[in-house]
Amino acid sequence: MEQNMNTPDKPPYGILAVLIVGAFIAFLNNTLLNIALPSIMTDLKVEATTVQWLTTGFMLVSGVMIPLSAYLIQKYSVRNLFLTAMGLFTVGTIIAGLSHVFPLLLAGRMIQASGTAIMMPLLMNVMLVSFPIEKRGTAMGVFGLVLMFAPAIGPTLSGWLIEHYDWRMLFHFVTPIAATVLLLGFFLLKDKKEKVHMRLDFISLSLSSVGFGGLLYGFSSAGSKGWDSPHVYLTLAIGAVSLIVFILRQLRQDNPMLNFKIYKYPMFALSSVISMIVTMAMFSGMLLLPIYVQTIRGISPLDAGLMLLPGAIAMAIMSPITGRLFDKFGGRAMAVIGLTITLVTSYYFSKLSMETTYTQLIILYTVRMFGMSMVNMPVNTNGLNQLPARYYPHGTAMNNTMQQVSGAIGTALLVTVMSMRAETYGKELAASALKEAAAAGKAVTPAVQAELEQQIAMQAMLHGINDAFYVTVFLSFIALVLAFFIKRATQAEDTIGKKAPAKKHSHKLVNN
């Protein structure tokens, strides 16, 4: 039985309000953690390639769970799905806040992810079916404004909490809010849904889990084990083969778990690719900058958070504006301008040095986020607008899956580039320093050697971060080229399930 996709006369503002508050808490939790990564590395004694699993692992679970969302949205009511999602998120937050070893913290994050992965596609689907296509850009813009408020306050709030309390306070702070939202959902959400008979394909679920999981784990492991390690390339090969089999299986099924047939709509396919690339580029700034400013430059967590604040505010302010501009001008002009800004600012971020000022970092990051605000929402909305209404759950599920997977792969790839290039630069700088000392006839005492090693480590990591940002320059250029092919989408006609009238004078359609 198909889900009813008719747009209501009046949007369900009460349901939307509860869903948006829940999504806001999930977004806030993610932005709180980025500033805390250096503190967690020090406290739990883990390296950058390990701590990045708090981000990659979160996205890995999301990438596995989100393909289920199209099935779940069609089978269960908004109320049941929201309560389940918010319940999982709350439990995960409590576990993470009580963790004193890294594996327990990672487990808490993954449980959080299983809840967030259900919540976001659910909210997007309710938004799509609640507003007509001509008002959808504005509605998505207002929705984006609410959600972008989380990144606006998250880093600064995180920096203040870490300076005054232990990093676990980040989770203790979120727990009572999440529990309150869960109770609000329990009492306020009253929607009902007819019983839908749908069967979950466990073979497809297994293939997608192994496929996405293998690729993400392979990319993440390359930073510590190297690309020539069998542990890396065998995992990548298994993941790639499983993913290919998964896609072929979905294409043959009448009711696939993740409907890849929606890629036959060109604007949706194009928007999906551009969005994936932009997501990879965006996470570079969120992950690499806190490491640079705190580990290399010694800037406090609070100042690091304040540095990201103007960029997040700019993105939040632009969200409703880009929604209105999209309704008026379409997605191509906005995507081209936004990606040009992203490309230029990414290039300047690849030139960071020990002399780069705090003001320069603020300006660069703010302008970069301003550019990105003009890309994701307009491009995604334009792609979804081309889909027939019955494909909305599949479209939102596919978009969220691809963004989570690309974000996780992008994070893993960029951290791997940073780590491997830093190691290479470290060896080169150490060899050069020893040659200079030998040529000058200077004796290298243990104290001098320790200071020298620390300086070399900082310089090597700086070069590694610059190289990782340079990868985002290349990615941004590809997205910019693709943006020129965007056209304003019109909803494709859905002819499946309809028959022509039997007689010329008949005014009724026969529904199968």
TrEMBL record:
It is a multi-pass membrane protein. It comes from Mesobacillus selenatarsenatis (strain DSM 18680 / JCM 14380 / FERM P-15431 / SF-1). GO terms for molecular function: transmembrane transporter activity. Keywords: Cell membrane, Membrane, Transmembrane, Transmembrane helix, Transport. This is Multidrug resistance protein B. The keyword Manganese does not apply. It is found in: Cell membrane. Pfam families: MFS_1 (PF07690).
